[in-house]
């Protein structure tokens, strides 16, 4: 979409297809307003993060007059007749948020889908590739907000496939990196549904790379460890051996750790990782709203306190390579 940055754009409607339009407008630099009495969790999330304006009402002519671009539309509810048979499910990893990072196989799956079950962190602009008659179902999980249970998502996948439809499960990053893709795969296989997997670019590598931070660098580190920060150290559900991680000598990448980052850094310091170890947090990686904060193990929790999810933390010498990622050469 070719727009002058700051162009006022209006999206009338709040369904998942509208969310795709919103994402495309944001990527083009537009100032986006959504007018709809109700909206998907993805649109609500963008509004809560201050990236768009959402008016919870019916559109008025004054809204249209104030906009430079107006988008609206609806799905064709009368798709072609089809012989019902068991369909298939394709688990598509959408990458870190930029639709340009979706694989060719992922795009082909979206273009041919009858039903797309999409997440908050999937690149919503890619939904524009869907057929006009495709059904798009938003099952976003917002931290501390609206959420669809995993059991309900699994049931949606199975029920739509059993009705003979070609179903795409569209998620951010890679389905199998803290994406619960394996649970969805097992649910489909147990129900006798043919299932394919299209891997995606994981934000664990992509977000740091887009901030100029390689997770490995010759002479600094020979490996990296990706952990979930969903629960803090010491939590009954935590399985991370933080003392071992602190002395492993690898780059540490933390996903889903916005709320727990300070506790994780404290546990790593207690385990022996030097307080001066470089660290960085990349929020909204691959999106126009991407932000990067750099500090040390001792200070990154406080420095990144104003950032929201999604965010990726990187702890290790690679976060401060002179001349490469913002440090003096």
The number of helical runs is 10
Low-confidence stretches: 74-84
| Assembly category | single chain
Sketch the topology as an H/E string, one letter per element: EHEHEHEEHEEHEHEHEHEHEEHE
Measure the end-to-end span.
37 Å
Please tell me about this protein's structure.
Helix 5 packs across helix 6. By secondary structure, the protein is of the alpha/beta class. The chain has 10 helices and 14 strands. The protein has a 5-stranded parallel β-sheet with strand order 7-6-8-5-9, with helices on both faces. The chain has a 5-stranded mixed β-sheet with strand order 10-11-14-12-13, with helices on one face. The chain has a 4-stranded parallel β-sheet with strand order 3-2-1-4. The chain has 3 domains: 8-71, Rossmann fold (3-Layer(aba) Sandwich); 88-198, Tetrapyrrole methylase, N-terminal domain (Cobalt-precorrin-4 Transmethylase, domain 1), CATH 3.40.1010.10; 203-320, 2-Layer Sandwich (Methyltransferase, Cobalt-precorrin-4 Transmethylase, Domain 2), CATH 3.30.950.
């Amino acid at each position: 979409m070719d727009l002058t940055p700051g162009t006022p754009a209006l999206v009338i409607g709040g369904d998942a297809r509208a969310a795709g339009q919103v994402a495309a407008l944001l990527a083009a630099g537009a100032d986006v307003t959504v007018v709809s009495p109700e909206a998907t969790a993805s649109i609500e999330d963008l509004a809560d993060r201050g990236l768009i304006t959402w008016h919870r009402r019916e559109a008025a002519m004054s809204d249209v007059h104030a906009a430079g671009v107006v988008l609206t539309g609806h799905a064709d509810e009368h798709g072609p007749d089809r012989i019902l048979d068991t369909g298939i499910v394709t688990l598509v990893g959408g990458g870190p948020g930029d639709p340009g990072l979706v694989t060719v196989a992922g795009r082909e799956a979206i273009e041919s889908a009858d039903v797309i079950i999409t997440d908050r962190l999937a690149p919503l602009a890619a939904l524009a590739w869907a057929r006009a008659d495709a059904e798009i179902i938003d099952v976003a999980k917002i931290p501390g907000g609206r959420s669809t249970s995993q059991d309900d998502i699994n049931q949606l996948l199975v029920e739509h496939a059993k009705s003979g439809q070609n179903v795409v499960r569209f998620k951010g990053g890679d389905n199998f990196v803290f994406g619960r893709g394996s649970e969805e795969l097992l649910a489909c296989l147990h129900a006798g549904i043919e299932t394919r997997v299209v891997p995606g670019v994981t934000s664990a590598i992509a977000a740091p790379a887009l901030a100029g931070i390689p997770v490995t660098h010759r002479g600094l580190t020979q490996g990296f460890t990706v952990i979930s920060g969903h629960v803090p150290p010491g939590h009954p559900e935590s399985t991370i051996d933080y003392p071992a991680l602190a002395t492993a000598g690898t780059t540490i990448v933390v996903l889903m750790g916005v709320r727990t980052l300070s506790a994780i850094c404290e546990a790593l310091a207690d385990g022996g990782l030097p307080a001066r170890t470089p660290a960085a947090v990349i929020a909204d990686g691959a999106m126009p709203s991407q932000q990067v904060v750099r500090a040390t193990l001792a200070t990154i929790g406080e420095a990144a306190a104003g950032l929201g999810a999604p965010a990726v933390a990187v702890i290790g010498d690679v976060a401060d390579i002179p001349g490469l990622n913002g440090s003096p050469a």
